[in-house]
Each structure stands twice: as C-alpha cells, then as structure tokens.
Amino acid sequence: MKYQRPKGTADILPGDSEKWQFIEKKARALFKKFRYQEMRTPIFENFEVFSRTSGETSDIVTKEMYDFFDKGDRHVTLRPEGTAGVVRSYVENKLYGPEIQKPFKTYYIGPMFRYERPQAGRFREFHQIGVEAFGVDNPTLDVEVIAMAIELLKSFGLNSLKLALNTLGDNESRAAYRQALIDYLEPFEAELSDDSKERLHKNPLRVLDSKDEGDQKIVEGAPSILDYLTDDAKKHFETVKSLLDDLGIEYEIDSNMVRGLDYYNHTIFEIMSDSKVFSGKWTTVCAGGRYNGLVEQLGGPETPGIGFGLGVERLLLILEAEEDAFDIENDLDVYVVGIGESTNAETLKIAMSLRRQGFSADRDYLSRKPKAQFKTASKLDAKYTLTIGETELAEGKANLKKMETGEEISVSLNDVYEDFAKLAK
C-alpha cells in the first residue's frame, strides 16, 4: 500500500522549515515591539465556538469546516480560523478583569483547517499568523493594528502593497443597510446564485462577497454602506482615515468589501500584493478588522476587539518568487574529523563540548576515510575542521584548520574543551 499525505496538506521538509522559522521569527520580533504576547489555543474546539461566531450562512460554516462527533458524542471542529478560539480563551480565562491592562494584546501562530479545493497558496491545512487586541474602542487602535500589519509585510521586503479599507458601521448602521440591500436585491432574486438566494434574507451582506460572476454583476449597482452610517460610525471611520493620513499610509476605499466572517463591524481592511507570483493581479495576503460584540457572543462582558490574520503559505509564495528574500543562517562552525576507530569516543566528546560552548558542530557517523570526511566538511561549508587521529589522541592534541584560508595549527585538546573561541581567534 502506498501511503501519501492527505490531499490539501504539505510536508514541511528541512530546507523549507527554515523559511517558516524565518517568517515566524520576524513576526515575533515585531509583535514584541508592539507589546503583543503569544497565546496558544487548542487545534479543535466545540462546534458552536465557530458556528456561533463565523455566521451560520458563511462559507466556512456551511461548506468548509472539518467537524465531527468524537467518541463522547461531542460535536467538535478543527479550527478554521484563529480569532474565535482566542476569544473563547479570553472569556474562559477572564482576561477582561480589572487587573488586566487594556488593551489586552495577543498573537497566535499555527495551523488552521478548511475543506476547500486545494490550489497554489491555499491548502486544507494552512497556517496563520494573527493578532488580537481587546478592551479598547478607540479608532487609534484600529490604525495601529493596520500599521503593524503593513510593517510586518514590509519587514519581509514587500513594498508594492495596497491597503483596501471599509467600514461595516455599528449595529444601527448595519440594520439600516441590511434592509436597503434586501430592497435592492429582491428584484434580482431569480437571477442570483443558489447560495445568494439562501443568504438574501438571512444575511444579505454575504451576497456582496459572492464569487459568482452573475452575482458580482448584480451587486455592482448595490447601495453603499457608507450612505447608511450613523453619526458615531461615521466619526469612527473618519478618524481612522485621518490617522492613516497622518502616518502617511495610503489606502483605497472599497465599499463592497465585507470580509468572509460575520463577526466584523466598523473598520475592516485587506492588504494586497501585486507580486509576480500572482501575475501582477492584486491578491490579499493579510486581512482583518474590528469585531465589537464577539466577546459577548461567547459569554463574556461587552468588550471591543480588533485583529488581523496573515496566511503563511501565501506569504511564502511571494517571498520564494523574490531573490534574496530569506536571510537564513545555517552555518556549521566546526566539523570534527576522526581517523581510526579509537577516536570515536573522543570526537563525540569534542562535538558535545563545542555545542555546550555555543558552537554548531557535526562529525562523521559512517566510519568513512578522512578524504570523505573533509569533503563533507567542505560541502557543509564548515568554518573549521578539527581533526584527531590515533597519534593526536595519544598526545592530547588535535589539528585545527580554518577552511576559508587553509591555515592549520596544532592545538591542545584541553584548550578545545576549555575555550574553543580563543583558539578560533
């Protein structure tokens, strides 16, 4: 029987995993500057955590979730996105308490799961880097989160970016717009796709997000939510735009953007790249927005929130299409060459000592001849070789060679064990 990885998943092999570590390291470093701390939540949650928050008519809930009943007949779901699990943890662990500094800032890095057609940059098991901030309704935080997302992408060398911006307003704005949208769409009901017909009266905003070409033509003439904002919602959005201007961050207003999850309100955004890997077509690599009300849906107190998510696979596609995108250090400091079986224990001790002193070290495990070992050291681009044969072992010495220059000296094994850095100088 031939065993293969499940469709829509990938093996991240050595050589590629370093690229993932490079991305994660940069993200962690930037989030630390903005005072975000990591949270790790379970890969599976109760089904209701996502069905309640993502929206019963969303594609995620109706088509894409990996959900099943476990042996205790509990309905569980592999997480399709990161925010709902973080919110559940925020509520369960009472991270809204008076002793917690506001805003509460956190980030996550990990795998998500959606049953959809696999394609370039889109998998059934995929990985997200995301941030969430709770407890502050100030539009200044909206702008800081957007600015942080842009800074993250720019830290990878992505400079050709476009920020698309919209608002979904507050509850009053949304209710007025919902009715206006229903009134507009009802005359077209017979022409809508089956999914949009289902959503028309349940959640008409979802029709705006339809990928059906016929639906897209219909919604081109739909009313704009910007015409239905309350004074408070309009003030919030105007402040966001003003602060983005103050920071010199350019943006485009896309009044038909609604995002794929039902919990968003007020500010929503997408950051796009026209990388050559997308044939120059603007493609979203990072997106997010404000979700006031989501904490209450999962049993917590009234708490505003905002965040974003970034797809690691899609970011990798972009970076792999660029030259010198990855600054990956995988240097080998010392390759220990052992000549003769009697040197086996000593070469092992030397390699372990070098590692404890902070150096990367490797050695031969196949009892190969010296020529083959030196060839491996060269192939691995070792900075030094440390060679010990039976004579050197008897004399308590080793031969240290600087590979770049070919310079070679005899050194004491005691000095190697005590302070190799001094010898390397």
From TrEMBL:
Alphabetized Pfam families for the sequence: HGTP_anticodon (PF03129), tRNA-synt_His (PF13393)
Primary residence: cytoplasm
Keywords from the named record: Aminoacyl-tRNA synthetase, ATP-binding, Cytoplasm, Ligase, Nucleotide-binding, Protein biosynthesis
The organism's taxonomic lineage, starting at the top: Bacteria, Bacillati, Bacillota, Bacilli, Lactobacillales
Keyword check for Signal: no
Any GO MF annotation of the entry: catalytic activity, acting on a protein
Superkingdom field: Bacteria
Protein name: Histidine--tRNA ligase
Gene coding for it: hisS
Catalyzed chemical reaction(s): tRNA(His) + L-histidine + ATP = L-histidyl-tRNA(His) + AMP + diphosphate + H(+)
